[in-house]
Structure prediction request, 329 residues.
Amino acid sequence: MRAWRLSELGDPWDVLSLEEVESPSPGVGEARVQVSASDLNFADILQCQGQYQVRLDPPFTPGMSVAGTVVEVGSDCELQVGDRVLGMTASGWGGYAEEALVRGHEMRIVPNDVSLPAAAAMNVIYGTGWTALHRRGQMQPGETVLVLAAAGGVGSAAVQMAKAHGCTVIAAAGGQDKVEVCRSLGADVVVDYNSEDLYEKVMDATSGRGCDLIYDPVGGEFFDIARRLVAWEGRLLVVGFASGDIPTAPANHVLVKNYSVVGVHMGGYKGRMDDVLDHCYDELWELVGSGALAPLVSKELRLENLMEGLVDLSSRKTTGRVMLRPDMT
Prediction:
């Protein structure tokens, strides 16, 4: 099979090579899957660089998340050959390949009315969005929701989910192309924070009230703007730090405006409150299967074109999801 392999840590475009290798053998509790789709994540770049919190020692194949079909099972694995599965990869054999390894007990069976590429595209972004907006943010129909980095993966998912729940959505993104993406997603108000004042535009749009719920995967200076835009008794969702800067919230400001700063860590539920994730995916399967939600996929790449996707992702040129499709002809 063909797989991108990393022999030393570094920038993936410098250290990854596409090789012909033997198919990996699943260990105890593992299965080998034929990869249908793997979503490109910034975390994969960090893992190649040795900067991600889960460190892998070379050699390995990156690609943390995968959707595919089981072709071989190891001992004590609850999956069966032919199962259509979604989840995280295992043992250094990731999704940037024609085949990958997964742990059986961690995988989710993909319903027949959801395609494997759609399952891969929705996995991280909709799971994060559901955890943030519904579980942690307690989003209610009729509320006003501000989404930062709204043209990106998790941002575009949040726009779609808030609209589907009957909320007024203000989408903020940088640049005309990304602004147009936000409009295509159905955002009620769009702000280009490269050329417009985010604070003034949002306050004008809300008649000075601010937003009930703010979805912030950016952090840095945008967090300071966002907290000033939270309405009385609003909720500011800390989703991530794409800016690279981790901000702080002055407690006196939180007190005076009576708002909540809410952490969002989807992965933290795994092994701690698995029922929450089960509920999450039950709802997401139904929404995606019915067409109520459709993941925004801006590009699908063949295996040999992986590098262009990773370079664009690193330079923040992408919108929605970029998918690797080893089985694409």
